[in-house]
TrEMBL record:
InterPro entries: Chondroitin_lyas, Hepar_II_III_C
GO molecular function: lyase activity
Pfam families noted in UniProt: Hepar_II_III_C (PF07940)
This protein's name: Heparinase II/III-like protein
Species of provenance: Butyrivibrio proteoclasticus
Domain Heparinase II/III-like C-terminal stretches: 394-470
Subcellular location: Cell envelope
Record's GO cellular component terms: cell envelope
Amino acid sequence: MSNRTLIQDFLAKSEGCSIYTKYPDISDRSRWEGLSDSLKKKLVQAGEEAMNEPWTQLLISDFMEFKKSGNRVRFEDKYFPRRRKLNKLVLAECVENKGRFLGDILDGLYLILEETTWCLPPHTSYVRDGVQEKMPDVTRPIIDLFDAESGAEVAFAEYALRPVLNDISPFISTYVNERLKERIFTPYLGQHFWWMGNGKESMCNWTPWCTQNVLICALTRPEGFFTEEERRAFVEKAAKSCDYFLDEYGEDGGCDEGAQYYSHAALCLFGCLELMSGVLGNGKEGNSSFADVFKEKLIRNVANYIVKMYVGNGYYVNFADCSALVGGRTAREYLFGKATGDKVLSTFAALDFQKESEEERLVSSEINLFYHFIQAFAYDEMMSVTGEAGIPEDAFFESVGLMVARDGVYTLAAKAGDNADSHNHNDVGSFTIYKNGKPMLIDLGVGTYTQKTFSHRRYELWTMQSQFHNLPTFIDEGYLTGDESGAFEGKTEACGKQYLEELGRDAAADVYNPAFIMQHAGEQFGARDVNCILCMNSGETKGVAENSADKACSGKYISSLAMDIAGAYGDERIRSYKRIVSLNKGEGVCVEDTYDGDLNAVISLMTYEKPEIVPLENLNAEDALVDKTSEGKCIKIGDLGYAKVEGVVSATVKAYPITDERLSIAWKHEVYRVLLKMGPSNRLEMKFR
């Protein structure tokens, strides 16, 4: 780890620590009346609709269900609606200021305050990835993601409505502050939770997400609740955690959790920095502002990562637990872009925001009230933005081993790295292709989170396994024929058909089947000899590292990632598996695999559109750039195009229904897997057109 002190260094140049008042409470009528009439009408209407929704009944049996069955949804389906409803009511009351929503607001506020715990059932362990408690221990509060989120919600609701709540009774604010003291302030200052960081273990989105929400709680408390020194103590501890979080990033700003977690990682870092810059004064010389931290290259790169990952039509480059559809951009990205001086990011965020439905523009599903205020007070400005965000240049995130390359038709992403990413899937060497903004080769993402998702049995889940990524699986045919020597010379064609039928039939069992060799999880299971060359959209070629693929690319506009992925399998019989993934701009995608080993290789290609194995001679003359004179297999991928494959002896198509609710967000119908058995030459070339 690099043990950065970037945020702490900027903090050391500042003085004091005031209360955060950037967003108005209900008494600041000029700010609330300054919102556009259309937006005010929408916010009041959302509040009126929320009044007609019942408050959910949250039972301890719902909490206990997770330990019984691993089901966390039963609890969450009652937990989150309370918070969404309260947010809409608070905003409506702040806009209207007539007291019409206050009764319902108090009901919701007290329901949340009276919950036995604000933690979710999967998070009730006192050590990282420890065994969860069956019941919450009220004597030893845990600050998890949603304890902190709930604290921030009730804190910001009390801050926003404090003038009118005090007219009703001062005991309302007293109750909020006592809960915050019990569940947030005392444990935060007095205990060490793993997500705070210690410079030794890796951090993830939990670090800025929890930290941001603790700061919301602390920095919105009224004058006299904390001294200036006490507020600064929160900021100092938060700054240290932010630095531990940034230790996970290379200077390129690549996020190993993917685009979907950008909202909880990068944007929560923005939230931390925004809150700090809103309360810290200049240093003694008077010429140093904490907000200058946004000018730092690392912070700028963390911010604009999301632009580089965008494909089009709502799709993003995805890997690990990230979905291909991660949701629309919001005011947080827009303001992050403004803060870092990145007009591409701010324009991209505003234009994406304009395309969203009205419900999504109001971030109706969001439980963090602070985000709602950010959204409301940037809404009208974002609606007025015009222009084009433009196409990002090709990028290589060396810190995570990810290349993203584009031309006017294709978006290609290829991943090297290792299998120790946060929210890891075993996917070293996998790649995805979008053609005209539509998925050609896909990464599934992850299904609905359950207890198993974050347990030692995680890789029994099919979406986590390398065999369900665009990767080879190796076969020890000896185990399939009763000959455990591992030899496969002379085995019958029936044996080959057998394992093609069996592979993936029972994904959980495949993990323990010695006949199937897939990738393993862990930092030691990664790519080696990784080299990337980038062709910028201007046509200028940029070498990120010395590239073994360079000679093959001579004279072409090409972006290419070369690597040896044999080490990801941890089997000495797989000596090397070299893969070169290239975008030949104006032509298409080419993948070249060269294998040296003792086991048969079967390559998986995951598609969303239905693939069909078609004889080359049946293709019309105008059908893509397919050379009909050479040997190989041709795969027609829906109406998108073709994959011409040389170096395989068989091709099989399997369909997989999508029954999981979370997967169905991105994949509305069944997905498909093409299984390609590599030929005896152990060389394979795939051209996608």
